[in-house]
Amino acid sequence: DLEHEGEEDGGEDEDAAPWQVEQVACGAMHTACVTEAGQVWLWGVSEMLGHSTTLDSWEPSRLLTLDRPVRRLSCGSEHALAVTTDGRVWAWGKGMHGQLGNGMGRKLP
């Protein structure tokens, strides 16, 4: 058990997520998690979040551009890759050195 100085007990956190997290992955400037339902939630610097936005997000936001459940997720320094339950691989983030596997060498939302 983790102990937090100044806390009386380890009771339930009222702000806790309403879903079970199955996996967490971290990059240099972003973090992602996969829920038991296969949803991907991300937070950090905008370019790594898989959204078409230039805003950083320091609270988890759901990846809505991926419309199928995710089985596994991995984060690189400035990109992420997900394997869906049907075996497809999805990539997003900075791909200036071929990390996204699309041969384009640019960012993808």
TrEMBL record:
<protein>
    <submittedName>
        <fullName>Uncharacterized protein</fullName>
    </submittedName>
</protein>
<feature type="repeat" description="RCC1">
    <location>
        <begin position="87"/>
        <end position="109"/>
    </location>
</feature>
<dbReference type="InterPro" id="IPR009091">
    <property type="entry name" value="RCC1/BLIP-II"/>
</dbReference>
<dbReference type="InterPro" id="IPR051210">
    <property type="entry name" value="Ub_ligase/GEF_domain"/>
</dbReference>
<keyword id="KW-0677">Repeat</keyword>
<dbReference type="Pfam" id="PF13540">
    <property type="entry name" value="RCC1_2"/>
</dbReference>
<dbReference type="InterPro" id="IPR000408">
    <property type="entry name" value="Reg_chr_condens"/>
</dbReference>
<feature type="repeat" description="RCC1">
    <location>
        <begin position="38"/>
        <end position="86"/>
    </location>
</feature>
